[in-house]
Amino acid sequence: MNNFGESMSLRVDIVVPAYQESENIQPLVERIAGVRDQSDFDINVFIVDDNSQDGTEEAVASLGLDWVNLIVRTTDRGLSSAVLRGFEEGSGDIVLVMDADLSHPAEAIPSMVQELKEGADFVVGSRYIEGGSTDDNWGFYRWLNSQIATLLARPFVNIKDPMSGFFAMKREQFNQADELNPIGYKIGLELIVKCHCKKVVEVPIHFTDRVRGESKLTLTEQLKYVQHVRRLFLFKYAQSSEVVQFLAVGASGTLVNLAVLTLLVGLGMGDRLAIALAIMVSVCTNFLLNRRFTFSHSREGVILHQFVKYVLSVSLGLLVQYGVSVFLVETYENMHVQLASLFGIGAAMVLNFTMMKFVVFKRKFYKSS
Ligand code: GDD
Ligand code: MN
User: Fold this and answer.
1) How far does the centroid of ligand 2 lie from the alpha carbon of residue 209, in Å?
2) Rounded to 5 degrees, what are φ and ψ at 236?
3) pLDDT above 50 (res 196)
4) 203 and 120 within one domain
5) DSSP E strands: which ranges in the chain?
6) What's the pTM value of the predicted model, to 2 decimals?
7) Is the Cβ–Cβ distance between 42 and 10 less than 8 Å?
8) What's the 19 CA to ligand 2 centre distance in angstroms?
């Protein structure tokens, strides 16, 4: 296998996800062929079509080129999984992804490959760095959408065009991927994070608006992006985001606790009983929120079992909370019952997080959620 030595030509696999792109196949392959003729790479193309049945198969067949392969998927659907499927088909040193609709200039491929040779982990064809441009005449809505999406990608990679669907990496780097989750259409971002790409380089491109066919990116796809970002965040900051979410849930539980407490005391209930009831109500809300958010990988578990385990594991904390609260309120006559409860809550929280992390919502596999 060629390890970027110069003796053999470098093998570049171009993966093209395609859905109803029959009219674009021939012009696309012609442009890639132009690059193939002029460079010394050994280029193979893998078009992954999701059963378009629009003449794509005929279009590829009529080219009669043995370096252009067509994979027609009939069961799976979606841009990201199509890209991953294309990666599996080839065995080249470099994997490169580009759209079928001629938006991405094949002529940029040599400089992208060059960056990888020079040590980049990941290369992106970028519209927004100097020398790049786009004739995508986006309205305000799509522009805003893109700005927000780019901002959300910021915790993962600091580049100008993280949304680009034109990118390349070494296969070796791809093989280091943690469990991939190809939801939505930002497979590039997923790969940057999960393949631990550190040096991400942008190469300027001119992005051409598609001439034939239609865009497939619907609003639903864009909404999935928010979900995708959340998952990537959990993956990247698994430990700390658990703590942050746990604290947020704890804060909401504190509010619930104090509200119930104030209400009950206001109704004339004795401190001890009011403290106990307020604790019970907030235990329930905390359980539901922690299950839904903090430890959301556990959402499929049986809720009743989890609740029993939850109550058992926090019971020690609850006793401490109740004990501290009652002790303070009865020892210091002037102390408000709410303040005493706050101290109780603080003491219990530290104890509870530890119990929960290691007992109730323990992960089976500590990978992506
Ligand atoms: N196999 C398969 N399955 N291919 C798909 C699917 C699918 O479900 N959905 C889209 N594609 C293919 C299209 O045929 C096209 O080749 C490519 O994926 C991009 O889809 P477009 O519909 O052309 O998307 P776009 O032009 O709106 O978005 C492009 O620009 C974005 C940045 O603004 C893409 O490059 C995106 O990846 C990029 O984020
Ligand atoms: Mn497009």
Assistant:
1) 7
2) -70, -40
3) yes
4) yes
5) 11-18, 42-49, 68-72, 94-97, 122-126, 133-134, 167-170, 200-204, 206-207
6) 0.70
7) yes
8) 11
- In this prediction, residue 369 carries a pLDDT of 35
Query: Which domain-ending residue is among 157, 184, 217?
Result: 217
Q: From the CB of 295, is ligand 1 less than 6 Å away?
A: no
The CATH number of whichever domain residue 67 belongs to comes to 3.90.550.10
Domain of residue 50, residue span:
7-217
| Closest among 90, 19, 12, 11 to 49, alpha carbons compared | 19
**234 CB neighbour count, 10 Å cutoff:** 18
Kindly state the average pLDDT of the residues 304-314.
88
Strand partners, 207: 134
User: Exposed, middle or buried: residue 65 (CB in 10 Å: 0-12, 13-18, 19+)?
Assistant: middle
243 and 165 inside one domain: no
* pLDDT band for position 3 (cuts 50, 70, 90): low
Same-domain check for residues 245 and 211: no
pLDDT per position as a tens digit, 101-153:
999 999 999 999 999 999 999 999 999 999 999 887 777 877 888 888 898 89
Structural contact between residues 84 and 51, judged by C-beta atoms closer than 8 angstroms: no
Tally the domains of the chain.
2
Cβ atoms of 250 and 243 closer than 8 Å: no
Calculate how far, in angstroms, residue 205's C-alpha sits from the geometric centre of ligand 1: 17
213 backbone φψ class: left, alpha, beta (φ>0; ψ -120 to 50): left
pLDDT tens digits, one per residue of 168-177: 999 999 999 9
* pLDDT over threshold 50, residue 295: yes
Q: Phi, psi (5° rounding) for residue 247?
A: -65, -40
Ligand 1 pocket: which of 69, 71, 99 to mutate (most atoms within 8 A of CB): 99
Give yes or no: residues 272 and 131 share one domain: no
